[in-house]
Amino acid sequence: MTELRTLKVALLGCGNVGAQVARILIEDADALAARTGARLQLSGIAVRNVNAPRDVELPQDLFTTDAETLVKDADLVIELMGGIEPARTLILSALRNGACVVTGNKALLAQDGPTLYEEADKAHVQLSYEAAVAGAIPILRPIRDSLSGDRITRVLGIVNGTTNYILDQMDSTGAQFADALAEAQRLGYAEADPTADVEGHDAAAKAAILASLSFHTRFALENVHCEGITSVSAADIAAAKDAGFVIKLLAIAEKLSDADGGEGVSVRVHPTLLPREHPLAAVRGAFNAVFIEAENAGELMFYGQGAGGTPTASAVLGDLVSAARRLVLGGPGRTETTTGHVPALPIDAAVTSYYIGLDVADQPGVLARIAQLFAEHGVSIEIMRQTIHRDAESNVESAELRIVTHRASEAALAATVEAVKGLDVINSVTSVLRVEGV
Ligand code: NAP
What we know:
- The protein has three domains: 5-128 and 310-329, NAD(P)-binding Rossmann-like Domain (Rossmann fold, 3-Layer(aba) Sandwich); 140-306, Dihydrodipicolinate Reductase, domain 2; 350-435, 2-Layer Sandwich (Alpha-Beta Plaits), CATH 3.30.70.
- It has 14 helices and 17 strands.
- It has helices spanning 16-27, 29-36, 67-72, 87-96, 106-123, 140-146, 161-173, 177-186, 195-198, 201-214, 234-242, 309-329, 366-376, 410-421; strands at 5-12, 38-46, 63-64, 76-79, 100-103, 127-128, 152-158, 225-226, 245-257, 263-275, 287-294, 298-305, 351-361, 381-390, 397-405, 408-409, 426-435.
- The strands form two sheets. Strands 7, 8, 9, 10, 11, 12, 13, 14, 15, 16 and 17 form an eleven-stranded mixed β-sheet that branches.
- Strand 14 and strand 15 form a beta hairpin.
- The longest helix has 21 residues, at 309-329.
- The radius of gyration is 25 Å and the shape is elongated.
- Bound molecules: NADP nicotinamide-adenine-dinucleotide phosphate (NAP).
C-alpha cells in the first residue's frame, strides 16, 4: 500500500467549536485519511491562554500562543477564534502562504469578505466557510455546487437560533418579548448581550453570504435591510396566530424585476408572517432552516442545528476534507462565481404581502373607506377581518380590523399606511408586518 501524504492542519481557537474540531481530527484520523487521500495532522492549536481548561482533553504540547508561526507552516488553516483581528490578518497570511482556509467567522466575512475572497482567488487556494451560515446545515455547498446548473429565485432562511427560540416561546406560551429573552438567556440560547441576535445583525451577515452565493454577486452587509424582533409584541403574535400565521425572523434574498424589465436582488432581514402550514413554520426552538426556490429544482428545504460546538464542527470538517482533497488532487482552488452583476435593491423596491392591524371606530361605511384607500394606492386586499370590542367602562364600541394584502411594493404599502393613519375613523395602526409564503 502506498504511503499517504501528510497535510499539516493549524487550528486557530479551541473554544466551543475548535475543541470539537480538534477532538474529531484526532479521534477520526484514520477515517478522515481514507476519505481525503492524505493524513490530516493537527500541527498545533493557537489560543490566548494555553493553560485554560478545555471541553476536550487534548495533548498539551499542541497548544501555543504563537498563531503566526503556526500558520506559516500549515497546508490547511482552520480559523475558529471569531472576531475581526487577529483572525483577519492570520487568514490573509495563510492564504498568501498558499494554505487553504476554513472559517466559521460570519462577522469577519460580512465585514471584509471581498478582501479575503480576492486573496484566495489570487493564491488559487480554497477559502471555505460552511459553518458561518446555519451551523451544521450543509447549505452553502448545495447552493454553490449542487445548484450551480440551476437559477435560484428566492431564499428564505431561519438562520438565527436565538431569535427563533424567542419567537417560538412567544408563540407557544403567549410570553412578551422581554420574558422570552430572559428565558433564552437562562437556558444559554441567548448571550448576556443579545444585541447581535435580537437586532438581526447576525442574520443580516448570513443573509449577505446566502445572497452572494445564490445570485453570483457579492453583496455586502450594507446591502442588507435589517430589522430585528425587539418590537414584536405578544399582541402581534396572538393576532398572527389567530389569522393562521406564525411570526419568524427571516433572512430573505430574492430576485425581483422592475416595471422596465430591470432585475435586482432584495436582501433583507425582518420579522415575517408565514402561514402555519409553510415548511418554515414548523421550525421550532433554536433550530435553523433554509428554504430555497429554484427555477428547475423547485422548492428545497435544509433543516438542522444552527449552532453548538459539535454540530458546527461537522460543517468545519466537511470543508476541511473538501479542501484537503483538492490539495491531494491538485488543480486550482474552487472559487465562487461572481458573474451575476445584479444590483442590490433598496427596501422600497421589495415586493411582498403585508399584514396590517387597525383599531377603527365601529361606524357604518368604515370598511368601504379603508378598502377604497388601499385601492387608490394600488394595494389590493386579500383578506379583511373585523372583530368588535366593547370598552367595559365607556361602553364605546371599536373594531379591530385585520388586513392581509396581495403582493405590493414596500413604497406603495408605506404610502397606504400613511394615508390610512390620516382617516378620522382610525384610532391606531396596531401592526404592520410583512408576509411570505401565501
Ligand atoms: P469561543 O468559544 O469564544 O472560542 C474562541 C477561541 O479562540 C478560544 O479558544 C480563544 O482562546 C481563541 N482566541 C480568541 N482570540 C484569540 C487571539 N487573539 N489569539 C489566539 N486565540 C484566540 O468561540 P466559538 O463559539 O468556538 O466560535 C468560533 C467561531 O465559530 C466564531 O467565528 C463563531 O462566530 C463561529 N461559529 C460558532 C458557532 C457556535 O455554535 N459556537 C456556530 C457557527 C459559527 P482561549 O480559549 O485561550 O480564550
